[in-house]
């Protein structure tokens, strides 16, 4: 009987928690216009989370300018990239009246909490982060981590996981949609939240332990080198499709995408990475399972297959592309949206920082 009561309470708790309002946070670096991999891998899920949000859910989407400074930036290009990134989010369907969308660098509570968290984060833990060397290696197109001179790594690259944790915790986020490549950083965020709650205890913990949101994730590879992810840092511009590429550019890039000479279309990421990458793209654009798409093209040639991939991408992107070109020219509108989002973010995050300062004895 006693065990039955415990199980019943446990089920009721899980049912209540699963229906509790969520605070969802995610961020994107201001690299300008995102590419197809960004859209299919993350941004389309942001829109989906917004459109499917329950009453009471809060959605917070940030353009993380402070993170961008971990690698050298041209000031004029960074300024333009910030605007283009915001215009893209609005163009794909992020509603500033439903979600808080803002520039992280306009809300200084992020860096304040990052300093606090940095003071309780062991250096050894940061040095074990997989991105400590790999991010700079990728930025310099190095072939391996061994080619990176550690003396050239800046402190920001080492400590940015603490800033990333602050981005999340300053809003007391409960859910974070991230890919597997960021799972280690989210785990660090949870550890720091727990450490703070334990070190500066009160009657109730300040931070919840945010959980990873499981969303469909499409890993889109380079059109020219399907052994690596699609990236804006790749030197070959033909390796990626930007969300504002016109129809002619998309057609040329897909036509020149690396495939193979094997007859027929099959999904085999190991033996046929290029063909499989295009199948993944086509399946994502048409909202189908990749295996089902592969069956439809089993006896067809690469020419027809690539033509259909192009048509699917163009159909998906033409609406957002038109909206983007309209929004990016309306600088006053972008400034109003950014100001409105930053004000909402400041108000919410300041409530957290007041409590943080109080628990630290800084009041």
Q: Your description of this structure?
A:
By secondary structure, the chain is mostly helical. It folds into 2 domains: 12-219 and 331-360, Rossmann fold (3-Layer(aba) Sandwich); 247-327, Tyrosyl-Transfer RNA Synthetase (Orthogonal Bundle). It has helices at residues 2-18, 36-51, 65-68, 75-92, 109-118, 123-127, 131-139, 155-169, 183-199, 247-255, 273-286, 290-296, 302-328, 331-360; strands at residues 23-28, 58-63, 100-103, 175-176, 211-212. The strands form 2 sheets. The chain has a 3-stranded parallel beta sheet. It has a two-stranded parallel sheet with strand order 4-5. Helix 2 (36-51) links the parallel strand 1 and strand 2. Helix 11 (273-286) packs across helix 12 (290-296). The radius of gyration is 22 Å and the shape is globular. The termini are far apart. The relative contact order is 0.13.
Short overview:
The protein is mainly alpha-helical and 363 residues long. It has helices at residues 2-18, 36-51, 65-68, 75-92, 109-118, 123-127, 131-139, 155-169, 183-199, 247-255, 273-286, 290-296, 302-328, 331-360, and strands spanning 23-28, 58-63, 100-103, 175-176, 211-212.
Q: What's the CATH class label of the largest domain?
A: Alpha Beta
Structural class: mainly alpha
Euclidean distance between termini CA atoms: 50 Å
Radius of gyration: 22 Å
Number of strands: 5
- The 3D shape can be described as globular
CATH architecture identity of the largest domain: 3-Layer(aba) Sandwich
Q: Could you report the average pLDDT, rounded to the nearest whole number?
A: 89
CATH topology of the largest domain: Rossmann fold
Beta-strand proportion: 5-15%
Low-confidence stretches: 1-17
User: How many domain regions?
Assistant: 2
CATH superfamily grouping of the largest domain: HUPs
The topology string of helices and strands comes to HEHEHHEHHHHEHEHHHHH
Spatial strand arrangement across the major sheet: 1-2-3
> Count of helices?
14
Give the biggest beta sheet: 3 strands, parallel
Main location: mitochondrion
Protein name: Tryptophan--tRNA ligase, mitochondrial
Catalytic activity: tRNA(Trp) + L-tryptophan + ATP = L-tryptophyl-tRNA(Trp) + AMP + diphosphate + H(+)
Keywords: Aminoacyl-tRNA synthetase, ATP-binding, Ligase, Nucleotide-binding, Protein biosynthesis
């Amino acid at each position: 009987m006693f065990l039955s009561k415990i199980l019943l309470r446990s089920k009721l708790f899980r049912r209540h928690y699963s229906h509790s309002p969520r605070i969802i946070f995610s961020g994107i670096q201001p690299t300008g216009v995102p590419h197809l991999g960004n859209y299919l891998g993350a941004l389309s899920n942001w829109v989906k989370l917004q459109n499917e949000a329950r009453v009471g859910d809060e959605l917070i989407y940030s353009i993380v300018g402070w993170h961008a400074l971990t690698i050298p930036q041209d000031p004029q290009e960074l300024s333009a990239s910030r605007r283009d990134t915001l215009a893209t989010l609005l163009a794909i369907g992020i509603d500033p009246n439903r979600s808080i969308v803002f520039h992280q660098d306009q809300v200084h509570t992020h860096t304040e909490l990052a300093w606090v968290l940095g003071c309780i984060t062991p250096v050894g833990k940061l040095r074990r982060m997989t991105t400590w060397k790999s991010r700079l290696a990728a930025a310099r197109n190095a072939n391996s981590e061994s080619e990176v001179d550690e003396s050239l790594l800046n402190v920001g690259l080492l400590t940015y996981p603490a800033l990333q944790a602050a981005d999340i915790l300053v809003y007391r986020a409960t859910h974070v949609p991230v890919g597997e490549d960021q799972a280690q950083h989210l785990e660090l965020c949870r550890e720091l939240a727990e450490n703070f709650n334990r070190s500066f205890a009160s009657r109730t913990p300040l931070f919840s332990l945010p959980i990873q949101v499981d969303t469909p994730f499409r890993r889109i590879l380079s059109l020219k080198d399907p052994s690596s992810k699609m990236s804006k840092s790749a030197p070959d511009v033909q390796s990626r499709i930007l969300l504002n590429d016109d129809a002619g550019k998309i057609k040329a890039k897909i036509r020149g995408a690396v495939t193979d000479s094997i007859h027929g279309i099959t999904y085999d990421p190991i033996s046929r990475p290029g063909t499989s990458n295009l199948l993944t793209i086509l399946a994502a654009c048409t909202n189908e399972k990749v295996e089902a798409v592969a069956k439809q093209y089993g006896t067809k040639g690469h020419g027809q297959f690539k033509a259909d991939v192009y048509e699917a991408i163009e159909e998906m992107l033409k609406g957002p592309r038109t909206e983007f070109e309209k929004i990016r020219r309306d600088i006053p509108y972008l400034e109003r949206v950014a100001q409105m989002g930053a004000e909402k973010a400041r108000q919410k995050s300041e409530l957290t920082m007041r409590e943080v300062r109080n628990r630290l004895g800084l009041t």
